[in-house]
Design a protein that fits this description.
The chain is an alpha/beta fold. Helices cover about 70% and strands about 10% of the residues. It has a five-stranded mixed β-sheet. Helix 4 runs antiparallel to helix 5 and helix 6 packs parallel to helix 7. The longest helix has about 80 residues.
């Protein structure tokens, strides 16, 4: 039985889930690389037109961030956890920048929620809780900067109205509730998917095992069938030899006693066997004794005549013995010509005749 190839080896549930996470990570990193490149060009040009040479620190930060994204996307030899941490760090930095730059009207909080969900995907519930705590602390610090008026950004016109304690306190306390409403069902869904993956891989393993057992059973059945065919052939040869045994009774002289009814099928097997014996042992005289044949008819007589003629063609003479008076009367009544067939009363008479020669 052929061994399974490496591609046929079963995949564990952990490996399957890791493949899913890796595929999602690769797609996200390349999406960030594409859109990040566009954002780098557009944002850097916009900042340069607005701030002039003072925009170079911002452009440098943009370029470094984009380099981290491209590196994480291209360096696939890095482990999944390292690449995931790099992606989460970049997304967290962008979320913090949007939160500080645009305040409550920006998309920083929404992007932080996305970062928390991704942390939940790659690092489980503990990673999601840690990321939630980091985002909450970032939100509190940003609120303190806005309330105290120490933001210090050049472009803050769009957020100047979002600087009261009431506005930020409501957002801060509402933020964990929104995040929990998202991550709790998402975490439940992830756990359910993991259980389904374990069940699917377990069922696949059972199916593979059953298929292997079925293949082994089929192979065993095939071997048994081959053995049965060989045994059947051996039994057929044995039956044929028992139906018409051959006994050497003298030098180059063999006796073949026939017992039972003679028909065309049996005569064909008889002729084939006697021809094989005569050819292999170089027998010159075959004595066919029909004393055990209960009845003679035209078919039986003609069949014996054909056998005797076939033996004569390969150089073996034949003497027919054991013809009973009833059989002789039947052959005469049927008008069968036996004039070309040598006959004797019994095999003993044949031996006496040969000893006198």
């Amino acid at each position: 039985m052929s061994q399974p190839s490496p591609t046929d080896q079963p995949i564990s549930a952990t490996s399957l889930i890791t493949q899913w996470r890796l595929q999602i990570l690769n797609n996200l990193l390349w999406v960030l690389a594409v859109f990040g490149g566009l954002a780098l060009i557009i944002g850097s040009w916009s900042d340069y037109l607005t701030l002039g040479n003072r925009a170079w620190p911002y452009i440098t930060v943009y370029a470094l961030t984009y380099g981290i994204v491209v590196g994480a996307a291209a360096l696939r030899q890095l482990s999944l956890n390292i690449r995931a941490i790099l992606m989460l760090s970049v997304l967290g930095a962008i979320s913090t920048f949007l939160l500080i730059f645009f305040g409550l009207v920006g998309s920083g909080r929404l992007l932080w929620i996305g970062v928390i969900v991704l942390a939940l995907v790659y690092f489980g519930l503990r990673g999601g809780i840690i990321t939630l705590a980091i985002s909450f602390i970032t939100l509190v610090i940003t609120a303190a900067l806005y309330i105290s008026g120490n933001v210090g950004l050049e472009v803050t016109d769009v957020v100047t109205v979002q600087d009261s304690i009431e506005e930020w306190s409501g957002s801060i306390f509402l933020y964990p509730a929104i995040v929990l409403l998202i991550i709790v069902p998402f975490n439940t869904l992830m756990q359910r998917l993991e259980r389904l993956a374990h069940q699917a891989t377990a069922e696949a393993a059972r199916a593979r095992l059953n298929a292997q057992r079925a293949a082994e059973q089929a192979q065993q059945l095939e071997q048994q069938a081959t053995q049965l065919q060989a045994t059947e052939r051996m039994l057929r040869d044995l039956v044929q030899s028992l139906e018409t045994p051959t006994v050497e009774i003298g030098q180059d002289v063999m006796l073949a006693p026939i017992v039972g009814h003679i028909d065309s099928e049996r005569t064909s097997k008889l002729t084939q066997r006697l021809l094989e014996v005569v050819s292999s042992r170089r027998i010159k005289l075959m004595v066919i004794d029909v004393a055990g044949v209960p009845t003679f008819d035209t078919t039986a007589a003609q069949s014996l005549i054909q056998t005797i003629r076939a033996l004569r063609l390969i150089g073996c003479e034949t003497i027919l013995t054991g013809i009973s008076p009833t059989a002789a009367q039947t052959i005469t009544a049927l008008g069968i010509d036996m004039s070309t067939i040598n006959t004797a009363r019994s095999p003993q008479d044949v031996l006496i005749r040969l000893s006198l020669q």
